Amino acid sequence: MEREKIKKIASFEAGIKLGALFHQFIGAPVSEKNAEILEKAMESCVKLQPYVIDAEIRIDREKLKYVSALGYTSLAPEMIKARVVIEFEGERAEAVLEWDEKLRYPLMRLL
Known about the structure:
The chain has 111 residues and is of the alpha+beta class. It has a single domain (3-110), classed as 2-Layer Sandwich (Pantoate--beta-alanine Ligase, Chain: A,domain 2), CATH 3.30.1300. Helices cover 32% and strands 33% of the residues. The chain has a four-stranded antiparallel sheet with strand order 2-4-5-6. A two-stranded antiparallel ribbon has the order 1-3. It is elongated.
């Protein structure tokens, strides 16, 4: 298979992984007490998927300061920063998911 096609497949896989992560975990209960555990769980789930060689998830602790009177909130798009590295047939693609404040939207992009 030609290198350009392999690179496109790796890039597509990176987007699929980030999209799945985003839609799977939005709304999960989160607080400062379990944020690290949730980050590790999210990373673990992404790393189970084919072609993933690395994943890193961070939940913005500043945004966790505004929790409900019950001591937690729901994981929201603006709280997540994720990075994934995919390798497919020798080609790597690295992508991130992060909140774009100007657009008020979570954007994915290749690095």
